[in-house]
Specification:
It is a single chain. This protein has two domains: about 240 residues, Rossmann fold, CATH 3.40.50.300; about 160 residues, P-loop containing nucleotide triphosphate hydrolases (Rossmann fold, 3-Layer(aba) Sandwich), CATH 3.40.50.300. The strands form six sheets. Strands 6-9-10-3-11-12 form a six-stranded mixed sheet, with helices on both faces. By secondary structure, the protein is α/β, with parallel strands linked by helices.
Length: about 525
């Protein structure tokens, strides 16, 4: 039976970071941060991209060292020489960007670098048994020997979580753990979090899904421009409190642009079917038809597995799941037989869901990434025209408002929101007629999300046809003129911009909480 003294002991400060400063040359990422982690509680860290959240977590997990300041663990001062050192002290982190080896199995990824060894070698059977148990705990039916590259993004995120859970941690830092998870997978993760905290494990939770994060928060901390701007217990906060302290009083995701008439049909998806990659003969997109006009913004809403990603990828010409029936017409021209590059050349472009894997080249600069899709426009004969490329890159950076030290900066130096704007800017630089965006706000903060939707609205007013998919119902009710709900590969409903949130969710098959 619990007692008041037990509760107080459980709730005591386990780790305290005091006056943490982190400087990179003349840039101050953290400016005297004081941050506490309570035993057996969830501390949620809110903040825009670039606020310093990831820098602080890297310091707490031993990836980086502070310029000044100190960390106390159990009341004693500690310093971490590496992430392994922090892990030895019981601190683990699930990074926002997946760090899995795609050519290795689920089992090998979970036990990489800490294999279970016997006198005769690695005990692969025990590793597989523990992997299977971890995946069962997370309610994910994945064989331990499945290669990571054969899993969908959400399943890869679950493997990343399983790897962190496989280490007996006292403090577990979760940086955007649900960014690629379905609603049911999020519920499972929350059950795991509650189980961990009941066992005394402390969680630091970072998420741009604000309403979702409120479900598990015990303590909330807001970081803005490298400083802590607000702290509170869960009972004292709501969504408005978070947004006000993150981005200020006057904020919204925007509304559908008005004051102009739509043009002719730009994109015609006619009776399109896409086969399930499992080889079952079923269709993940089933005889779907949709028209989008120039200047129109259409949102495709649906749960994980509804077929949103498969539809957009097939329309854009990605061959992983080719169209098995129907046609895609761009301003009346059939796109059959055209590659991704061919469709980009005609004016049909895609911003993919996974920007790290499919949208960016991490070894290249901001400028090189930005110009990649338009490279043919400044090639003359066998030579490139550097002045033309510089002009295009500079204009694109200004158009999409990328915050960067310059075109030559590493793409990895940008925040998630600015990386996403580079991917969008890269595709807009091709002067498309139709832009498809798969979960364009994945892993970016509420301020960057607002900028992305504002950017889409600006381009729609210039005549661009915009189609974006999302699993967040609130995003449907931002800039879309029309909301298409997908369920099991078909269109289950269509709504206007004044739609009711519960009606949209019900049409997708999602349970509506009273």
């Amino acid at each position: 039976m619990s007692t008041h003294n037990d509760t107080t002991a459980k709730d005591k400060v386990l780790l305290s970071a005091r006056d943490i400063v982190k400087s990179y040359g003349g840039v101050h990422a953290l400016k005297g941060v004081n941050f506490e982690i309570h035993r057996g509680k969830v501390t949620t860290l809110f903040g825009e991209n670039g606020a310093g959240k990831s820098t602080l977590m890297k310091i707490l997990s031993g990836v980086e060292k502070p310029t000044s300041g100190e960390i106390e663990l159990d009341g004693e001062r500690v310093t971490f020489s590496s992430s392994s050192d922090a892990r030895d002290h019981g601190i683990s982190i699930i990074h926002q960007e997946l760090s899995l080896a795609p050519n290795l199995s689920v089992r090998d990824n979970i036990f990489m670098g800490r294999e279970i060894r016997t006198r005769t070698g690695v005990n692969f059977a025990e590793e597989a048994r523990q992997t299977r148990a971890l995946m069962e705990e997370l309610e994910e039916d994945v064989d331990p020997m499945t290669l990571i590259r054969d899993l969908r993004l959400g399943q890869q995120q679950v493997v990343e979580i399983a790897r962190a859970l496989s280490v007996d941690s006292r403090i577990l830092i979760m940086d955007e753990p649900t960014s690629a998870l379905s609603a049911s997978e999020v519920e499972v993760l929350f059950k795991v979090i509650r189980d961990l905290t009941n066992r005394g494990v402390s969680i630091v939770y970072i998420s741009h899904h604000l309403e979702e994060a409120l479900q598990v928060t015990d303590y909330a901390v807001v970081l803005r421009d490298g400083r802590i701007t607000a702290t509170a217990e869960r009972k004292d906060i709501d969504l408005g409190w978070i947004v006000r302290n993150m981005v200020g009083e006057n904020f919204d995701l925007g509304s559908p642009p008005t004051g102009y008439a739509f043009g002719e049909v730009a994109l015609h998806i006619e009776d399109v079917s896409v086969a399930d990659e499992g080889g079952s003969g079923a269709s993940v997109v089933d005889h779907l038809s949709l028209e989008v006009r120039a200047g129109e913004i259409v949102c495709i809403y649906g749960l994980m597995g509804a077929g949103r990603t498969e539809l957009l990828e097939a329309v854009a010409g990605r061959t992983r799941l080719p169209i098995t029936g129907g046609r895609v017409l761009l301003e009346g021209e059939d796109m059959a037989g055209l590659s991704i590059a061919g469709r980009i050349g005609r004016g049909l472009v895609l911003v993919p869901e996974d920007r790290q894997r499919d949208g960016l080249v991490p070894t290249m600069s901001v400028g090189s990434n930005m110009s990649l899709a338009s490279i043919r426009s400044f090639v003359k004969g066998l030579l490139m025209s550097p002045p033309a490329e510089r002009e295009l890159v500079g204009q694109s950076i200004r158009n999409v408002h990328v915050k960067t030290a310059g075109a030559g900066a590493s793409i990895k130096s940008l925040s998630g929101g600015n990386q996403q704007k580079v991917v969008i800017g890269k595709m807009l630089a091709t002067n498309p007629k139709v832009i498809l965006l798969d979960e364009p706000s994945r892993g970016i903060d509420i301020g960057a999300k607002s900028e992305v939707f504002r950017l889409l609205a600006e381009n729609a007013k210039k005549g661009l046809a915009v189609v974006y998919s999302t699993s967040e119902v609130g995003e449907c009710l931002s800039v879309a003129h029309r909301i298409i709900v997908m369920r099991r590969g078909k269109i289950s409903a269509e709504f206007g911009p004044d739609a009711d949130k519960d009606d949209i969710m019900a049409a997708s098959g999602e349970a509506v909480v009273a």
